[in-house]
Amino acid sequence: MASIAVLGYGVVGTGIANLINKNKERFKSITGEELNISSILVKDKNKHEQKQNYHLVTDSIEKIFNNPVDIVVEVMGGLHPAYEYVKKALKLKKHVVTANKDLIAEYGEELLDIASDNGVTLNFEASVGGGIPILKPLMESLAGNKIFEIQAILNGTTNFILSKMYAENMGYKDALKLAQNLGFAEANPDSDVLGYDAARKLSILSTIAYGMKVNWVDINIEGITDIDEIDFEYAKLNGYIIKLLAISKNKDEKIYGFVKPVMIKSDSYLSKIDNELNGIVIEGDAVGNVFFSGKGAGMLPTASSVFGDIADIIQNKNKKNIKFNDKEAYIEKYWDEKSDWLVRIKTNDRLNTICNLSESFKNCHMYTSSVTQRDEVAAIIRNEPEFTLDSTFEKLSKLSYVTKIKKFMIL
Amino acid sequence: MASIAVLGYGVVGTGIANLINKNKERFKSITGEELNISSILVKDKNKHEQKQNYHLVTDSIEKIFNNPVDIVVEVMGGLHPAYEYVKKALKLKKHVVTANKDLIAEYGEELLDIASDNGVTLNFEASVGGGIPILKPLMESLAGNKIFEIQAILNGTTNFILSKMYAENMGYKDALKLAQNLGFAEANPDSDVLGYDAARKLSILSTIAYGMKVNWVDINIEGITDIDEIDFEYAKLNGYIIKLLAISKNKDEKIYGFVKPVMIKSDSYLSKIDNELNGIVIEGDAVGNVFFSGKGAGMLPTASSVFGDIADIIQNKNKKNIKFNDKEAYIEKYWDEKSDWLVRIKTNDRLNTICNLSESFKNCHMYTSSVTQRDEVAAIIRNEPEFTLDSTFEKLSKLSYVTKIKKFMIL
Question: From the record, what ranges are coiled-coil (chains A, B) (predicted)?
Fold first, then answer.
């Protein structure tokens, strides 16, 4: 029998308890082992009185570790005390499964080392892409590939908001409120809407894919809080959709990564990833592009990945542990490829702004459509690297008549 | 050091040899083990004189087994002698990796039992979906799910042909010839164009997903040889695309499966799977829909999956073996859900045929467009189960003026 302690009994913890109970018979018939939840850690026992497994609930981490336990499942979220508890569990030679992307992005290297030193496994499939099998396929099935690039939609909350803004012409604030009402966004949505959540997930994927430590704080991060209805009107004029993309690439062992709103063509794979879904494209030298998508969060999809991790530990007890490479990645500040861009410049002098743009860029098509606002110039600039754009815009932004510059990469 | 014998030195065998050589250093640094190709089995040594690894080439299976070898990679294809060689390897307690879907669909259960009895592993990721990681995610990452349905495009050859017929208005024969010229179709394309290849892959996926033996011969199979340009014109009129879909589902432990050309809406995931790509949607009770896509065949994508299988064996030497359940699935002859259908009836009496159709189906919309041929009636029939259609068509086909009936499910 495999004894499981669950830390956290919120939405995901409840899903896991249900899934383990549901799969008891089937799992035993496949592996010969029975899964059993021995205890569940909560902050406040009183809140869980009505729940099915109330007799297993405790508010004492000591009790958790004093019970016989083989696998600790951490689904509390947040950095502390998750970090301390997971570290303690690993040092006590308990296997750990976590769904916590903050924890892995911040302390993954250290915790994987501790796991390895103690001969136990730390699995974290659910930390990226929710229910989508992605980390294990990347680490194991695609082991023969040198990975060049990752393009992904990794945050369901922002994808939901952008989908509503696109499909129903909602403003950002209304779409955020709807997401909050439906439980897709938290009361404090900062980590999602500012792009931090996606950046943490991208750093986990990139660290594994490139075999180098890609810290999430080194990724260029831009959230979705500044996107307005006019941006979507421009996007639609061109048949584009705006998505918060998380992209990293490895070019000659230099890494470039960003999380930002990008205009993508409406016939691309990622353009079809709507609402709370996630999607990930991995490009490897042998396999070419492989695409994965599914539900990126939620009670049962997350529990599905956690269950897979538990099954993995039970079925492969002697498995070699993965480690994050401690070699720090060399991070490029700029994407060195040429792209097309959509730019919007708020200005008190349209004519001069248009002249400036025309002089600065060889291939610059000004918008003259009805979307264009009186106090702005909008243009598509083709085939320029980001660096050229940014250095030109730095000069432009110093002109007295230019008040704001906004740019979108077009992919 | 892990010693690998490769059976077959065609396109895929060459890809594997290249990938193993390329990954030597990296693999050793990750696992501490060196991969080494000890011998390569070919039919005719003279044909391979110019190849890099000619010194490893042998035409004697005895030599292969007399060399020290840990893992046998079977990429000869076909049933015989692949079956005999793989069986012998397993009995000699060699791990086996194969890319051979015919072999696994036909002899998978027996071979997995032999592997298990001999304490070795038989891996076959590349047998379905080429480079796409699908079998391992299904077996391991999604282990906590009851799988309800699989919808997939599993044959790159037919998908290429149908993509060309759709995008370039080519006839079937021209598109097949193009596929053959580009190496996407074999000189004898029967196994692909008649749907057998897709059915074998669907049977492997379904056997794993539902934990019951789904024989490929029990799957309803229809190929693409009868599809013509007019079918595509009707499809386009409605915004549909024609794809050879492989679908199975588990409803109350009864299995239904088919491979046939289906009209699908052009905004669905699978409609974006063009040319030689494969795509697979798996529906699980916890995870919901998960979607995988990528290159379904080819030298390096196949080698990518084979390499993942090899790495898996080396890193998990004590891994428990999977088995195919020997419980035969109960196979339903008919899909019991209502669908929409496009039907084309060749007839010498259009008026009477239209009357027949109108009387038989409540919701039947006749085509009156320019596509409609003089000697045929075409119609969309909504919300009818396949059984009703087939029994009506059986009667219709006996009428003297009806010469041919063709139907497409619309999904």
Answer: none
Q: What is the pLDDT of residues A116-128, one digit of tens each?
A: 999 999 999 999 9
Q: Does the pLDDT of residue B73 top 90, yes or no?
A: yes
The minimal CB distance from A308 to the residues B27, B142, B269 is found for B142
Mean residue pLDDT of chain A comes to: 93
Distance of CA A145 to the CA centre of its chain: 22
| pLDDT score, position B321 | 66
In percent, the amount of chain A with pLDDT more than 90 equals 84
Residue B136 has pLDDT above 70, yes or no: yes
The active-site residue out of A94, A164, A201, A295 is A201
Rg (CA), chain B: 24
Q: How far apart are the first and last CA of chain A?
A: 51
Residue B141 and residue B409: Cα distance in Å, rounded? Answer: 32
Architecture of domain B2-123+301-315 in CATH? Answer: 3-Layer(aba) Sandwich (3.40)
Indicate if the pLDDT at residue B66 is higher than 60. yes
Average pLDDT over residues A157-186: 95
Superfamily of domain covering B135-292: Dihydrodipicolinate Reductase; domain 2 (3.30.360.10)
Q: Say whether B290 and A290 touch across the interface (CB within 8 A).
A: no
pLDDT at A33: 86
Query: Chain B closest CA to A209's CA: distance in Å?
Result: 13
Is residue B77 a known part of a binding site?
no
| Per-domain boundaries in chain B | 2-123+301-315, 135-292, 338-410
Q: Is A142 helix (H, G, I), strand (E, B) or coil?
A: coil
Q: Which CATH architecture has domain A135-295?
A: 2-Layer Sandwich (3.30)
Give the length of chain A. Answer: 411
Nearest CB partner across the interface for B288, out of A140, A291, A294: A294
Q: With CB atoms and an 8 Å threshold, state whether A290 touches B133.
A: yes
Residue of chain B whose Cα is closest to the Cα of A137: B133
Q: What is the pLDDT of residue B370?
A: 64
Partners of residue A137 in chain B, C-beta under 8 Å: 133, 136-137, 141
Residue partners of B347: CB distance under 8 A and separation at least 6:
B353, B375, B376, B377, B401, B402, B403
Distance in angstroms (rounded) separating the CA atoms of residues B127 and B97? 10
Mutate to test the interface with B, among A139, A253, A270, A290 (most CBs of B within 10 A): A290
Point out the residue among A19, A137, A303 whose CB comes nearest to the CB of B137. Answer: A137
* Residue type, position A136, single letter: K
| Torsion of Cα atoms, B88 then B94 then B99 then B105, to 10° | 50
Q: Is A201 a catalytic residue?
A: yes
Whole-number pLDDT of residue B320: 57
Residues of A in contact with B144 (CB under 8 A): 19, 23, 303-304, 306-308, 311
Nearest CA distance, A19 vs chain B (angstrom): 7
Compute the Cα dihedral for B133, B139, B144, B146 and give only its sign. Answer: positive
Q: What is the mean pLDDT of residues A282-305?
A: 96
Task: Give the pLDDT score at A10.
Answer: 93
pLDDT of residue A328: 87
Least confidently predicted of A20-34, A109-123, B11-25, B293-307 = A20-34
Q: What is the 3-state secondary structure (H, E, C) of B153-194?
A: ECCHHHHHHHHHHHHHCCCHHHHHHHHHHCCCCCCCCHHHHC
- In angstroms, the CA B93 to CA B315 distance is 17
Superfamily of B338-410 according to CATH: ACT domain (3.30.70.260)
How much of chain B exceeds pLDDT 70, in percent?
98
Measured in angstroms, the CA of A177 and the nearest CA of chain B are apart by 25
